[in-house]
Each structure stands twice: as C-alpha cells, then as structure tokens.
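Let us work through a complete example step by step.
Step 1: write down the sequence.
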Amino acid sequence: MSCNSCSSDINTVPKGCKSNGNCADGGCEKLSVFDWLSNMSLPTGQEPLNIVEVRFKNGRKHFYRNVDNLQISIGDIIAVEGNPGHDIGTVSLTGELIRIQMKKKGVAFDSEEVKKIYRKATQKDIDIWKVAREKEYETQYKGREILGRLGIKMKLSDVEYQGDGNKATFYYTADDRVDFRQLIRDLASTFSIRVEMKQVGLRQEAARLGGVGSCGRELCCSTWLTDLRKVNTTAARYQQLSLNPQKLAGQCGKLKCCLNYELDTYLDALKDFPRQDIVLKTKKGEAVFIKMDIFKRVLWYTYKEDRNKWFKLTLENVKEIIDLNKNNEPVTSLEDYEFELIVENVVEFEDVVGQDSLTRFDIPKRKNKHKNKSKNSQTPTKPTQGNISSKKKKQRPPNRSANTNKNT
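Step 2: predict the structure and record it as tokens.
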C-alpha cells in the first residue's frame, strides 16, 4: 500500500514506482480504498452519488460535491472550494463506497463540510500548485527561525500550501497552551500569505513525517495504521514487560502502538492464571508469587522468610495448592511440587549449508601466540659450529673427587 514513504514526497510522486498515485490498486498511500463496487451497475431508478473523495498532501482527505455533474474518475486532478480561494487535490474514491466512508467518518450528506467542486484542474492551476508546493520547505525553515527569535515553546513540524498559493497551514506540536498571535503576524508579513495554525498530536506528527522503528521496519502509523488508539502501561504489565520508558516508547515519545497488537491474546491466556496476590500456604512457610511464563504455563514462587531460592511450578500444581488451601489444608512444601523444564533440542537447519552463520566473517580471527611459541620450541634445529661450541662451554666441569682419587 505504501511505496517507500511516498506520502512525504513534496511532489506527491512515489519514490518507488513513480506512478504519481495511479497504481493498479487505486493508490499507494495508507488511506487508499479499493473500489470493489466499480464493476457493478446501480439498481434501476437509483441515481449515482454526486459526492467524491479528494486526497491532498500527507493523506489528508475531504468530501466534495459534484454540483455540475462533471465526468470525474479516480486519479483526476481537480480544483475544489477552499477557505478562501481554491485548492488542488486528487480524486481518491468515487461511487457508492462514498456512503460507507462518510458514515464511518461521521459526515452527513447535507453537512456544510461537504464543499463543491469548481472544475477539472487546468495546466495553469497545476503550475501554480507545483510552485506553491516547492516553497513549503523554505517556509518551514524560515518559520522555525521566527519561532526561535520569539522564544515560543512549540515545534513546527510541517507546512502545507493551498493550491492557489494564497494560504498556508502550519502544523505544530506543543506540550502547553501557546499564544501565537504575534507569530501569525510575523509569518503573514514575511510570506505575504494567509496563515492558519493547526495543532497535531505527537502520534499524528510521527505519522506525517515517517521513520523507522526499533523493529527495523517503517512506522505503522505512516504506512498502514489509520486509527491511533490510546496505549496505557497496563498493556505492558499484562504482557510481563519491564516498564522501561526508553524501550517502550516509540519515535513520537509515546508508548508504542504495537503494545496493543497482542494484548487480547495475553488477556485470553491470563484467564486461567490465578491472581498474583494469592499466597500459597505450606507447612514450611508461606510462599509468594515472583513471576510467570504465560505461554509455557509456568509460575515461580518463593518463601517469604527464605527468598534465596525460587521454585518453578506448573499452573496445574498451583491450582491444586490453592484448592487445598481453601479447605485449610496446607501442603508439605514447594519442593514436592517443583517442576524441572525439559528443554528439547530443536533442529533449526535440515542441511549442512544452512548451519553456516551469516555473521561468521564479522568476527576477526585471534592468533594464539602461546601455541606458536610452543610449536617453535618443539621443532628441532640443525646443530651448527656456533651451537656446538656453546654446548661445550655449557658442559659441567669434571668431578673433583674423581681427580683427587687419580692423583692419590
């Protein structure tokens, strides 16, 4: 659905396929909708819907009414009503699926948000639109300089020009409420345009800018995730994760959206587990909960008085102990129920070629100098004249006692 962060390209041209959004599946950005009703005819007596969906920069979409009954299809560049002036966008969806999309987004058919379509964009409209889009980076850069001069605590994340170039929307993020009245005056006088400030959340900012997460893939919010749900630390607790903000936070500084992906699976698995505050009563003493492995169905307990050793118990054994404790029958000790996990050797590769590691060339080979020295010392050397003379010099002197015996 997304071609290498094509939504962040200034000319709306995907960096991968260069098809300018006219892919075979109807589009290349994350909010594309496949029109599965395009090959079906309407029932007799029903008129086609005169509302179309138009896409703008970074996946922003709005609904517009085709008052003049123009022949419009997906991929056409049209001029629509702006506030003020006109804007240029690309038609992303037509037909009966518009009813479902409007119902999903809570937009009524007679709402004032549904503005009208002026015409199909002429070459002059497209040229003005391209010139306005090329000024966005420079405007953003100068806007940040003005922010630094005024000392306002806010971050200017993106700038979007209207199709006629008379208006620019500045997207910003801020932790606290900001008084940007002086900022609007400075921006309007610097760029001679109509200025609109729009605050976005940190997750929305990450979705607009894109990036690569800690998993090595593109951000979910910038590729396929459309509804940004709230993430709590409770999701990390249910999944037995350490509450480390550096590991749990994403590029936006908030908790990662992927913490919600497997949360339902963990909640279903935890239904069979007892509460963690239950104390196991034994004749040796009371035992408290330490940790658990949800999918191996194993729990660790330790005695209150002696916490040096942890006892690994299966879920069935823990339930059995709890049932006995409800009848005021303490068990003998946790040692009787201790479970040793048998680790089976799993064959990862079926052939010898697969056993080679891809990183085997990254580790430098260490030369063992001690072995080389021992090998050099064991190799025999041919005796030379110098060696023979030195050996003679190193010979032991004759025994003095033997010499004295001969003299006597």
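Step 3: interpret the result. The longest helix spans residues 136-150.
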